[in-house]
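Figure-free illustration: sequence to structure, shown twice.
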Amino acid sequence: MMDKSIPDKSYFRIGEVSRLLGVQPYVIRYWESEFKTVRPIRTRSDQRLYRHRDVEELLTIRKLLYEENFTINGARKQLQRMRGEEAVTGRDPREGLLDEIEKGLRRIREIVS
């Protein structure tokens, strides 16, 4: 179940991740297609190798979907909020800061002119 800690390994095969999360491998592959933050490495034989951070991300996704009952879209937005990335509106929060800087520079230009 989710209470298991992630073993101290660099890479995990999909079967190991499946057991850690308590979901079938096809669910993990689906989440991988829906959540772009999960990007396993591919071996020459096209096997997926998940990094520790991928497994942590998948645990978070599982919690959002199964325990907090988010939809896929809602979980995606919640992950963005959790990371402080783009606001739900799609606007980059840094745009406000850039607007303020621009206003300040215009005031300085008016004073100097």
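We now fold a second protein in the same way, so the two outputs can be compared directly.
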Amino acid sequence: MWEYQKTLEYPVNIKNPNPALAKVILAQLGGPDGEVGASTRYLNQRYTSPCREVQGILTDIGTEELAHAEMISAIIYQLTRNLTPKEIKESGFDSYFVDHTTGIYPSGANGVGFTVDYLQSTGDPIADMHEDLAAEQKARLSYDNILRLVDDPDVRDPIKFLREREIVHFQRFGEGLRMITDKLDSKNFYAYNPSFDIPQ
């Protein structure tokens, strides 16, 4: 299904290590609104989508979110390479370092490891699309917050790219929601269900 290209979706070229910043950016790898959760959520939701167009949107965005996880991992790696023990201690990166050295581990900025509890896949395409719209807005907000904390232009540049993609994903999920609701009619459970809607 996938063909892997050995290049990032957008370049990451960070010159100055900054482990304190890496600790913050971890949120977008394995945090509750991070890229690992987004890709897993969308690639699982596509199976119960009622139309091929929306399945395609979920596949496209889920695949791109995998590329975003790769970008975030590259950012974290470049921010933590060649650290001295003193830099690790002074930056507050020591608690992460004890468990993972400078390996890339999907966790949030608070240090909590990724959990499938962050995912939602209900089988109800309208509920799932609303979940996905909210997920993209929360991811965009996380990138906004990261940009508020980052001065380094080498870090800001790929983060701004990722933020822009969350906005595009939000728009595409809006299109998907419209596609689903346009296909509804009075015989469809989502619009009308006699067992619930007709007084007994």
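Summary for the second example: The mean pLDDT is 91.
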